[in-house]
Each structure stands twice: as structure tokens, then as C-alpha cells.
Design brief:
With about 90 residues, the chain is an alpha+beta fold. It has one domain. Helices cover about 25% and strands about 15% of the residues. The chain contains 2 helices and 3 strands. A hairpin with a 6-residue loop joins strand 1 and strand 2. The longest helix is centred in the middle third of the chain and has 13 residues. It is globular. The termini are far apart.
């Protein structure tokens, strides 16, 4: 996966896991961010071919955010408009 290599090249230590359904059928590409002791985010409408840099920016924001709570999402570019939901850490 190109995103995995791009994340590694940026020094981000993330694990990408695919699943068959996020219940976002109207959007062909949906993804979630989830981490131990962090908030969970759900996005739809992403385009991996065009949004790679925005995805890397979002991953860095998430990795650096205390408890995963992103308050300023400028670095996420267009993806901040693709946010469908955010769940506080449990």
C-alpha cells in the first residue's frame, strides 16, 4: 500500500488494517483512526490517490494529539471536510 510506505518515509509508526465494512456504503473509501487511549474518528469520501499528503498530515496530528483529540485540523487539508464522526476515548 502506497500510504503505508509514505507514512514510514515520514517516520510515522502506524498500523493500517483493512476491513470489509465501516457501514459507509454511500462512500467508496471510508477510514477510521483509532488508537489506544485515544479518540476515534470516522471519515468518508477520501481519495487515496489525491489525498495522500492530507492523510499523512492527519496521521501526524492524531499521533501528536493528547488523547487523540484534534482541535486544529488545518494540516489535514481536505480531509477535515470528510469527517463523519468523533468518539471520545473510552
Amino acid at each position: 500500500m502506497a500510504l503505508t510506505k509514505a507514512a514510514q518515509d515520514c517516520g510515522l509508526q502506524v498500523e493500517f488494517v483493512t476491513c470489509s465494512c465501516l457501514n459507509m456504503c454511500q462512500s467508496p473509501v471510508a477510514f477510521a483512526l483509532q488508537g489506544a487511549h485515544k479518540a476515534t474518528y470516522l471519515f468518508s469520501g477520501a481519495d487515496p490517490a489525491q489525498d495522500t499528503q492530507d492523510m499523512l498530515g492527519l496521521l501526524k496530528l492524531y499521533a501528536d494529539a493528547p488523547e487523540g483529540w484534534i482541535t486544529e485540523a488545518e494540516a489535514a487539508g481536505r480531509l477535515r471536510l470528510c469527517l463523519q464522526g468523533r468518539v471520545p476515548k473510552l
